[in-house]
């Protein structure tokens, strides 16, 4: 398992579609793609929105020229299009509805203990610099008559992470979506992440990370429950 501070951990297999090698067979769904993507929740599409690709691409070309590059040299010719597609991938969460994803996977169950999904990979973009922050999320809830399919928890983490974010809001949005849809006895979310905008500019020391937490219900009111959660994610 790659450590969050290891830049190679950003090179997930599904990120390589942004390489623009012409093979779109594994291309994921798009944020600004047609409306069916929103209804599909998480379905992966193998096309990009041409208007968005064109608009973003033109802007990227301007950035290249503005930093003193020759946008016409061979290595950069396809860069605007590649960046445009990468950004559509990285912001596809805007077109996805996390509450709908959870609602579709609810099951009645009389299980009353904590359910914890830990070490969920998080890749997001900070809204201040549009640079990556990434790390791990730990999400727990205590049901109240209904549970949700376990795979849906990492899925909604992705939906919220694939938008421009601040870590604090990302943490709360995950908590609130689960709280709203499942109405559980409580939800706890902890995210530990490294922010490239801080690491690359020397503001954050290598190896340090930022932790945020957001709790509701039993996790807020009952110290023993909260401590059990914190012990389990350590
Ligand atoms: Zn930033």
Structure characteristics:
single chain; 234 residues; alpha+beta; GTP Cyclohydrolase I, Chain A, domain 1; GTP Cyclohydrolase I, domain 2; 5-stranded mixed β-sheet; two-stranded antiparallel ribbon; 9 helices; binds zinc ion
Low-confidence stretches: 1-42
Share in helix: 25-40%
Number of strands: 7
Instruction: Supply the CATH class of the largest domain.
Output: Alpha Beta
- Spatial extent as radius of gyration: 19 Å
Ligand inventory: zinc ion
β-strand percent reads 15-25%
SSE string, helices as H and strands as E? HHHHEEEEHEHEHEHH
The total domain count is 2
**Shape-level CATH architecture of the largest domain:** 2-Layer Sandwich
Strand order of the largest sheet: 5-2-3-6-7
Distance between the termini: 16 Å
CATH fold field value of the largest domain: GTP Cyclohydrolase I, domain 2
Main sheet overview? 5 strands, mixed
Structural class: alpha+beta
Average pLDDT number: 85
Per CATH, the superfamily of the largest domain is GTP cyclohydrolase I, C-terminal domain/NADPH-dependent 7-cyano-7-deazaguanine reductase, N-terminal domain
Number of helices: 9
**Morphology:** elongated
